[in-house]
Amino acid sequence: MSQYSKEIDAVASAVKGFPTWNAINPESAARMRLQNRFTTHLDIAKYNAKIMREDMAAYDKDSAQYTQSLGCWHGFIGQQKLISIKKHFGTTKRRYLYLSGWMVAALRSEFGPLPDQSMHEKTVVADLIRELYTFLKQADAWELNHLFRSLDEARAKGDSKAEAEIISKIDNFETHVVPIIADIDAGFGNAEATYLLAKKLIEAGACCIQIENQVSDEKQCGHQDGKVTVPHEDFLAKINAVRYAFLELGVDDGVIVARTDSLGAGLTKQIAVTNEPGDIGDKYNSFLDGEYIDSADQIANGDVVIKSEGKLKKVKRLASGLFCFKEGTGIDRVVLDCITSLQNGADLLWIETEKPHVGQIAEMVNRIREVVPDAKLVYNNSPSFNWTLNFRQQVFDAWQKEGKDVSAYDRAKLMSADYDNSELAAEADKWTQNFQRDASREAGIFHHLITLPTYHTAALSTDNLAKGYFGDEGMLAYVAGVQRKEIRQGIATVKHQDMAGSNIGDDHKEYFAGEAALKAGGKDNTMGQFENV
Question: Is the pTM above the cut of 0.90?
Answer without folding.
Answer: yes
